[in-house]
Each structure stands twice: as structure tokens, then as C-alpha cells.
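During the reporting period the student researcher (J.K.) took over the structure-prediction task from the postdoctoral fellow and processed the backlog of single-chain submissions. One of the processed entries is reproduced below for the supervisory committee.
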Amino acid sequence: MPKGIAVAVLNWNGLSLLQRFIGKLVQDSQPLGQVYIIDNDSSDESMAWIKANHPTVKLIQLDANYGYAGGYNRGMEQIEEELVVLINSDIESSPNWLEPIAKRFNADPSLGALQPKILDLKDRSKFEYAGAAGGYMDHLGYAFCRGRLFEDLEEDQGQYEDFQECFWATGACLAVRSSAFNEVGGLYDTLFAHMEEIDLCWKMQLNDWKVAVEPASVVYHLGGATLESGSPRKTYLNFRNNLIILFLNLPPLESMRIILSRLVLDGIAGIRFLSQGKIKFLWAILRAHFAFYGLFNQLYRERIKRKQKSLKDTKGVYHRALIFDYFLKGKKKFSDLKF
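J.K. obtained the following C-alpha cells:
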């Protein structure tokens, strides 16, 4: 078993969340885990409070708010442990949650990234939106989870207790092997926040690292602490970043076909927002597309550095259109899908 695991919490003006969750995280992570706080240049009293109340926590203080991707990239440069758990500040841990994670990494040197089971802190009987019991993708690039299709969250009735390889592991609580993280170039800074963990896991798969979920480890996610689910900013980042990761990681013809399909489907989503009077969300989708096209030169330079592989040859892909199976065929649970 690894000698030690770094448990790295990214913070930006999150004093109330640290006061609520950090003490239990420190306690539950012993004896395997050393807790770090990576601070994105907070202006509140969070760092002073940590120093005064949790002296065993190691602090990494950055000079600006670099978002999730940039913050963790810079923080990882100052962490020496080979296994690092990137964990949101609004996660409640459970006793001995690190042991199953450590055992999996120790048993399989090709394992690059792993997530625990993520349950909803507000309703512990249900899976949580951001990760649930492992992340997957359909053949049009829509991300979903074991236990969550679009907005439908399943109750945890023990139906997804098996360790399993998947397409992506959630950034809400993402255990990574540092050597794998560094080999693929870490998180892509341009994404800033949302879907950066999907891109990271995708890169790992393209470089022959495994991505998996270990439900024997359980944590509880508050969710929406940085950007609420009803935030136009979140809508913008999700739509923009989805296009970006498709462009970067797929062969050119396949990425072009899927992005053209998404142009139509995103347009339908925009019309739906318009019909609901949600003009800001329609504008967020339009901005996302224009931002993506405006980044073409930068993204092209990034793509030529990477490997690409068809989705049909990638683990954790549903080779049908989830949007049609969900909305037209009424398949509301992961177990309804036929892989």
C-alpha cells in the first residue's frame, strides 16, 4: 500500500465550507492521507483560519485565481506524493475512505485515475449529480453517470457496488497517480472549470492508463458551491468545454461529424431555453459556440500534441445517442442502457 496519499482541497474564498468540512476530512484521512489546501488567492479569512485551527494541514498559496484546472496544475507541482486526491471543498468524507482507493492503485500499476462513489449530501439515499458511481459518454459526446442520466438521480440501492473501469472519474473527488497526471500534461488550463476532469481522464485513456470507480469508498457532495446548477456561467462553460474536448481528443473527421451534430442539438437546447423564457441561458449557449470557434488556432496547436482515438475504441462509451434514448424512449436509469 502507498506510504502516503495527498488529499488536495482547492479553495477560493471558501471559509464557510472549510469550517464545515475540513476537520472531518483531516480525521477521516488518517493515517494514510496528508491534507493540503491549494488556495486560489482568496481574499477572505480562510487561510488564516486554517493556520489557526488545523496546523497539520499544508498550505499552497497561489498568486491568482486559476480556476480548477490551473489551480490544481500549479498545486500539483508542489506535492511530492505519488497518489493525490483532488477533492472539492464541499465534500464530506467518510471514515477510512482512502483505504479502498489506496488498495486499488497498489494492485494495478496501470490505474491512472479513480473516483469513489459520490452520494448527495442533502439526500444521502441518492447518487450525486457530479460523478455518482462513475462517468461515461455517449457517441455524441454527452457525459453521464452510473446513477445519473441528465437530471435524473437514482436512489442508491446497492445496484452499482462493483469496481469498474469507466470513461471518466469526477473532479469532485478524483484520485490520480502523479506520474500519469504529469505524463499527459495535467489538466488543460483553458477549460478553467467544468469537464476538465473528463478531458484529463480521456487523455489518460489515450495514453494507456485506466480510469475507474471504486464504490467501496464513499463520500458525500454538497454540490453547487462554486457555480449553482442554474447558473448561465455554468451553462456556458459546459457547452463550450464539451466542444473543446471533442475537438482535442477525437480524430478530425469524427470530431467534425460530432461537433456538427452538436451544433444542431445545442440549437434545440437553446430554443427550449427560449421557450421557457431563459434568455440568459440561450445567450450562454451562443457565447459558448462563438468562444469555441474563436479558440480554433490555440486548440489546433494543442491537438497536434495529443493522441486521438475513435470513441468506438474507448472504454466507457455508450454507442447510441443517449439524448434520444432518454427523451424519446424513456430510459431514465443507467441500468436501462444496453452497452
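The committee noted the following: Residues 252-275 form the longest helix (24 residues).
J.K. will present the remaining backlog at the next meeting.
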